[in-house]
Design brief:
About 65% of the residues lie in helices and about 15% in strands. It is α/β, with parallel strands linked by helices.
Length: about 425
């Protein structure tokens, strides 16, 4: 029990809550868009639009940091929690003004910009899901807790980056400027998610911290406000749950496709060259190269796809190139090329084998000569080149040095030895040197 009390003590915020009057003044000041706030809003819109247009993450982050849109959204949540309806109307009016200004400026910019390609930073803000709800909710909780605390730290800039209010608003402007209304509705829905759940977070924290209720409201009025809040939450969150479910299904489909294609990358002598998958239509396009895949092979692939939870997917199997369908002339040319390469390989192997055996040739010559001429006791063999003047011709010469026991042989035996070496080495270019021990 003492552990729970200690834990609750650490989680308690009441000791660090700022003076309620200061909190009220801060929120009220940030709601108004005039002077400094208005100019900062305009600059942030232009910066965010340029960043999205150039696909620059750093520029977009800068726009999120300088954007003052968090002010009126926190004001909406705070005013609902304290039943301060005049402040609520002011916050709604200023948020509407900010949204209109953002859409107008971003639409004008994208209409004038020569670059109209939808880069990844734009596309990332057109398909909101339940995960964006969680980001907005917990980001908003962080923001209102920081505003309410004496120890504000550097939370607000982080919340501005995480919740990303300005980029989806500018992406909606891009959709209007390029008449791509699916971009407009997707991005504006993401902006709505962020707005609603940041406001909800501000309302919840304001109630938990027991901010003083400035305007008296009847119980029936409070119930009506709560009903409206519940309705807004339901309308906002239900589509995001549907889109989130779709996102999970797409990711699962892509994972199954990756495992399936890895398993059938080599199939019946054919190789998977590339594949593309479309989770929306659940279609898989596969391009194979090698042996032609028959209809039976394609049925086998469809059967194997069921093992990877892809039974309801459509396989579109295409033949990139087929060895079976090559013309006779192409096959003959391939055979001739293979034969030529085999001959080159055999010749290279023969030369390599000859080079390896040359050092052993002197030993073989000594053994054979000693059987005929027992007086031969050593033999040196080498191959060199003979150069002659004036033409400077070069001739390959086999040079042999023979050492005899008990003196050199006579001329007749020398001639016999030279003739034998010429036949043995299969060349007339043999130079023999006779030596004695």
């Amino acid at each position: 029990m003492s552990v729970i009390k200690q834990l609750l003590h650490y989680l308690n915020l009441e000791s660090e809550v700022e003076d309620f009057d200061k909190i009220h003044q801060t929120i009220e000041k940030d709601i108004i868009f005039k002077g400094t706030n208005l100019w900062i809003l305009i600059f942030a819109i232009i910066v965010a639009s340029v960043g999205l247009n150039m696909n620059s993450t750093a520029v977009i982050i800068g726009a999120m940091l300088i954007s003052p849109l968090m002010g009126p959204i926190n004001g909406i949540g705070y005013s609902v929690a304290t039943y301060n309806f005049p402040l609520f109307r002011t916050a709604i009016k200023n948020l509407g003004f900010a949204v209109a200004a953002g859409l107008t400026a971003s639409t004008g910019y994208f209409a004038l910009s020569p670059v109209s390609t939808a880069h990844s930073e734009l596309l990332a803000r057109t398909s909101p899901t339940i995960y964006d709800v969680l980001i907005a909710l917990f980001g908003g909780l962080s923001g209102i807790v920081a505003i309410s605390s004496k120890q504000k730290g550097n939370v607000i800039p982080g919340v501005a980056i995480a919740t990303a209010l300005m980029p989806p608003l500018c992406t909606a402007g891009y959709g209007l400027a390029t008449a791509q209304f699916q971009f407009f509705f997707g991005a504006f829905y993401l902006f709505t998610i962020n707005t609603v759940f940041i406001a909800i977070a501000a309302m919840v924290v304001s109630q938990l911290l027991k901010f003083p209720i400035i305007t008296l409201a009847s119980e029936s009025h409070k119930k009506r406000v709560n009903h409206w809040i519940s309705l807004v939450i339901a309308i906002t969150i239900l589509p995001s749950i549907y889109f989130g479910y779709g996102l999970v299904q797409k990711e699962r489909f892509n994972e199954n496709v990756a495992r399936f294609t890895k398993n059938v990358s080599v199939f019946e002598g054919s190789y998977l060259l590339r594949y593309e998958s479309n989770p929306g239509t659940r279609e898989i396009m596969m391009v194979y190269g090698g042996n032609t895949l028959t209809e039976d092979h394609k049925l086998m692939l469809e059967e194997k796809a069921r093992d990877f939870s892809l039974g309801n997917a459509t396989l579109n199997i295409r033949q990139g190139f087929s060895l079976n369908e090559s013309s006779n002339s192409e096959v003959d040319n391939l055979k001739l090329e293979i034969s030529r390469l085999n001959m080159q390989l055999a010749e290279s192997e023969r030369k390599a084998d000859s080079l390896e055996k040359k050092p052993l040739l002197g030993e073989a010559l000594l053994a054979e000569l000693n059987a005929i001429f027992p007086e031969v006791v050593s033999c040196t063999y080498a191959e060199t080149y003979l150069y002659t003047m004036p033409a400077r011709e070069q001739k390959r010469v086999a040079q042999v040095v023979l050492t005899f026991e008990n003196g050199n042989p006579d001329q007749e035996n020398r001639d016999r030895i030279i003739t034998w070496l010429q036949r043995r080495l299969e060349t007339d270019m043999v130079q023999v040197l006779f030596d004695t021990e």
